[in-house]
Amino acid sequence: MALLTVGVSSGVANSGTGTVSTLDNLVSAAGIGSPQILSVQGSTGTALAIPVSQASTFAVIASTAGFTVQPGNTANTTPWLSKIHDGTNPFVLKATAPTTGDQAIVVAISPNGILAAGQGTKATSNPVVIASDQSSIPVAGDVAAASSDSGNPLKVGGIGHTANPTAVTDGQRVNAMFDKLGKQVVVGSVRDLKTDATATTSTTAEGTILAAVASTFLDVYSFWASNTSTQAITVSFRDATGGSVRFGMLVPAGDVRGWSCSESAAIKQTTVNNNWTTTLSSALTSGGITTTILAVKNI
Fold first, then answer.
1. Winning range, highest mean pLDDT, from 16-20, 77-81, 136-140, 203-207
2. Is residue 166 part of a domain?
3. Residue 223 neighbours by CB distance under 10 Å
4. Is residue 113 part of a domain?
5. Structural domain count of the chain
């Protein structure tokens, strides 16, 4: 892009090494093709830049759309207003929003000003920074809870422990727990959801052994019965008062019987808000049956 610079003193264009009587003479004498810019500075510091094709007279300069002649000073602190011309269309540099009809200026970034693409060390890589009002980069999975599964699984980790960590409260985030060899510690249920009860009876009357919990299933995963009488007795278990027998066991005189399974294989209670009861096959003339039941609370 060619640039012509002249001084103007008392209305006469001056090249600095000779006198040009008019701006027309300056333009015709230059013989410079488009695109080109003529930069004109008056002796008082008045300044603006315009396409050479529009620079024949100061009258044209002052009346050209988009130009305003502004008073300047010797320090040139007043910005110069400018137009760049491609030979056909003037490009306007202005401090307002673009309007219909404004011409675009294409700006290219020199490849010498950025680092080469590809992986490199910190010293040879373009840094990536987050906003000053953002403390961290949010990370989220690809699918929300209660949505259909998709995507690929991620490798997970946790914290190795040789003793129990400090307990959290309900709803707080917690780390996965592993032993010192990296084997994950897994239990069948949350300790706080486990429940148990013991009762002793010697009659055939149905009696509660495990009380109901509101809106909760009590799923039984272990029980045993100790018979201190001289009679063999069958103990029947129901998951509601007056309900159907869910399971039973014959307990010999002076003996103990029972069974256990994993909590995930527990006998499911049929309906929430119900108790568990026991019933003996016959009344005892001496001693009694002491029964213990273990259950986990589920919803």
1. 203-207
2. no
3. 25
4. no
5. 2
Q: What is the pLDDT of residues 158-194, one digit of tens each?
A: 999 998 888 889 889 999 999 999 999 888 888 899 9
Given 73, 92, 111, the domain boundary residue is 92
* 246 part of a folded domain: yes
**Residue 298 pLDDT exceeds 90:** yes
On whether the CB atoms of residues 208 and 275 are closer than 8 A, the answer is: yes
For the ranges 39-43, 130-134, 173-177, the lowest mean pLDDT is seen at 39-43
DSSP assignment string, 271-286 = SSS--EEEEESS--SS
Show Cβ contacts of residue 291 under 8 Å, excluding neighbours closer than 6 positions: 198, 199, 200, 201, 209, 223, 224, 225, 226, 235, 278
Q: Provide the 10 A C-beta neighbour count for residue 108.
A: 5
Output the domain CATH number for residue 269: 2.60.120.340
Domain of residue 257 covers 191-298
Q: Which of 27, 61, 92 is the last residue of a domain?
A: 92
Contacts of 259 (CB under 8 A, 6+ apart): 222, 223, 224, 249
Domain assignment of residue 32, yes or no: yes
Token pair, residue 134, equals: 């953002």
